[in-house]
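Checklist before submission:
- one chain only
- standard amino acids only
- sequence pasted in full

Submission:
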Amino acid sequence: MDNTHEWCNKGVSPEIKNLQNLPTPVFPWFMPRIQTEKIVHIADVSQMPAEASAEKTELERQQIKAILILAIYTDKEFIGFVGFDNITAAVPWREENITLLNITAEILGNAFVRKQNEELIKHLAYHDALTNLPNRNLLQDRLQIALAITKRHKRTLAVMMLDLDNFKTVNDTLGHQIGDLLLKATAERLVKCTREDDTISRIGGDEFIIVLQEIAQPQDAAIVAHKICNVIFQPFWIESHKIHVSASIGISIYPQDATVPEQLIKMADTAMYQSKKQGKNTYQFYTAKLS
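Returned file contents:
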């Protein structure tokens, strides 16, 4: 539990730094009440019950004499609380104080929901809804940034185009639901094959693009591609179905093949189709002969 904001009257020492990373079990009396009753109104901290000894000790440490707290909810989910502290006198809180704090709690709850929705919309605009991987829009941004970093550091970058072999057969025989689960499982395996700074994007259907940022040499991309082929070739168990697929991968290299995102992707795509012609479950680097 963290205190995220604090407003103090002139001359009152702030406590926000002392109220971070507090484990909620430390306050066994307070937490159940604020979540169920939605309000904790204490007119005199010194008169708190024995079972609230932990809470009383903390409030007295802050020299709080009276406290009023209201829960903040989003729909039915408890997300926090807002309150008033009185450090000058132990007096009951007036009805207008409770009304004001209740309005504040509702405003904060609604604002939190709105912020969550905005973040969700933004996330969906840049991520594939099925696999939660970056989509084509985010891929373009990531690739531009990766190219700039790679150029500045005078390194190499690889773009891989990956297509699942025999995916259509899975969809046709087992249905699209199983096919979708297979794509999600494939995405999870791809993430485990790459570094945190690399980008894996699903651009549609059973096609994925992988950007390997700042590699030392093209052979590094070959090592990753070989690993991916081996990992994808291992059987998938999807709802009691044992499914065998493989991956065909095309690779383009910056700066030797191209220096702009569109060309690198196009060349990787061309090389990927060559991989399929070679018998699938393999990878192919782009060469000028493929154009």
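Reviewer check: The first strand starts at residue 39 and ends at 42.
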